[in-house]
Amino acid sequence: MKNNHKSIAIGLLIIGMLIYAVRIQYIKKPKIGILKNIKYTVGKVTSKYDYYRHGYDYIFVFNDSRKDGQQDGNFIQGHKYLVAYDSTNIKNGFMILDKFDVTDSLEKHCIFDEYGLYWEGWSLQKIPFQYDKSDIEFEVREIINSYK
Question: pTM here?
């Protein structure tokens, strides 16, 4: 009888882990729907490249809560980059943009972190950093197309 309970517990644990893994992968990969209500914020790369998971970990704020992501690219641990996300439906995904390092621009534009996170979000036109907006839009579309 004891072994039966142990088997059931292990089975439920495996099913729970599978559901969690599928849910995480489903939400984090950006989809074309992200473009409808896209906003941008600042995300911070929190790890060195992880060869097992093939990417870097990062954090950002969405609707007053912390979100974690993981993405491949050319990042530097501790640097801050633009993050694109769907402002109305996080299930459409989010992405950190490695070509847009804003680490040095934050102080210049008086954008300061609060508890290590940045709480502001902007539409493409209102991003305060000196990047060509069409380059940002192009990069977002390139990343979305790479997931198809």
Answer: 0.74
Residue 100, Cβ density class (10 Å: 0-12 exposed, 13-18 middle, ≥19 buried): buried
Taking the C-alpha atoms of residue 59 and residue 44, their distance in angstroms, rounded to an integer, is 5
Look-up of token digits 């769907």: 86
- How far apart CA 60 and CA 33 sit, in angstroms, is 20
**Cβ burial, residue 134 (10 Å; 0-12/13-18/19+):** exposed
pLDDT band at residue 25, thresholds of 50, 70 and 90?
A: very low
DSSP of 11-56: HHHHHHHHHHHHHHHHHHS--GGGGTTEEEEEEEE-S--BTTTTBE
107-127 tens-digit pLDDT? 888 887 777 778 888 888 988
d(CA 141, CA 146): 9
Helix (H, G, I), strand (E, B) or coil at 63: coil
Beta strand pairing call for 80-86 and 38-45: antiparallel
Strand, helix or coil at 70? strand
Contact 29, 69 (CB under 8 A): no
Query: Backbone phi, then psi, for 102, in 5-degree steps?
Result: -110, 15
